[in-house]
Amino acid sequence: MVLDNKTSADTLSDATSVDGEAKAKRSRVSGIDRALQVIDYLYETGAPAGAYAIAKAVKAPLSTVYVIIDDLVDKNMLARNADGTLWLGARLYHYGLAYARSLDFMSVATHEMHDLCREAGETVQVCGRDAEHMLVLAMADGPSHFQVASRVGTRVPLNWTASGRLLVGHMPEAERVDLFKRGARISPTGRATIDPTELARAAKVAFDERLSIQAGESDYSVACIASPIVDSRGDCVATISIVLPEQKAFADKAGYADRVKESAARIEKVMGWRNH
C-alpha cells in the first residue's frame, strides 16, 4: 500500500512536471506568435503605428504589447520614431538581404531586370505574390525623369496591376475567382476591374498569352507591360514588367511587349524551367 501511494505520488509529480513543461512551451510559442503579430501588422499596413493601434489590431492587452514592443526595439527588430510610432527595424532588413542572396532565382531575375532596363530605357520591376496582393521584389529605375510610385516592398491588390493577373493565371478557375472575391479592391483611379469572374478570365488569357498590359488602373497616366516567369511545374512564380508613361507604352506597344516576353523567357531558360 505504501508502494502504491509512493507510485501515485511519483506519477502525480511526473504529470505535474510534464504539464508545467507543456505550459511553458505554450507560453514561449504564444510570445513568439505575439511578436510575429506585431511585425505582421506593420508589414501588412505598410505604415508606422502606435502601440495602442497595434494592440487593438492584434487583439492583445496593451500591457503585453508594450512589453513585446520594448523587447523588439531593444533587439533592433523594430524601430521607434521620434513621435513614438513603431516601424520595422534594420535587423529585419539584414535578414531579408541574407535571404535574397540565398535565392538563385532573384540573382538571375535581378540581372535580367537591369539588362532590360538598359535595353528598353524604362523602369523595370520584378514582382511576386503575397496572398491577395502583388509585391514589388526588385526594381531598376529607368534613365528618364518619369517617377514610379511603387517601389521595392510596395504591396497592392492583385486586380490593380498587369502583374497581379499573371501571378494567378496558372491557378484553377475556381481558385482564381475565390482569390479575386476576397482581394479585389477599387483602385485610386477607379479604373481597375473588381468583378471576380471577369478578372479570373482575364488572368487566364493573359497567362496563356504570356503578356498582360494595364494602363491608368492603379495610377493616372502610368502603364505596365508584364510577362510571367513560369517554373518547371507551370506556375507563375513572379513577373517581369516595364513601367512607363501611358502615352509611350501605346506608341510602341509591340516593341515593349516583345522585349518583356523575351526577358521572362531568358530567366526561365537560365533557371532550367523552359520545359514546363
Please specify the SSE layout and strand pairing.
Blueprint: H1 2-45, H2 51-58, H3 62-74, E1 78-80, E2 86-88, H4 90-101, H5 104-120, E3 123-130, E4 133-140, E5 155-157, H6 162-166, H7 173-183, H8 196-209, E6 212-215, E7 222-230, E8 236-245, H9 246-251, H10 253-271
Antiparallel strand pairs: 1-2, 3-4, 3-8, 4-5, 6-7, 7-8
Helix pairs in contact: 1-2, 1-3, 2-3, 5-10, 7-8
CA-CA gap between termini = 73 Å
What is the ordering of alpha helices and beta strands? HHHEEHHEEEHHHEEEHH
Mean pLDDT equals: 87
Tell me the fraction of residues in β-strands, as a range: 15-25%
Helical content band: 40-55%
> Biggest sheet: strands, sense, closure?
6 strands, antiparallel
Unreliable parts: 21-29
Give the structural class.
Answer: alpha+beta
Count of beta strands = 8
Tally of contiguous helical segments = 10
Radius of gyration, in Å, reads 24 Å
Instruction: Trace the largest sheet across and list its strands.
Output: 5-4-3-8-7-6
Overall, the morphology is globular
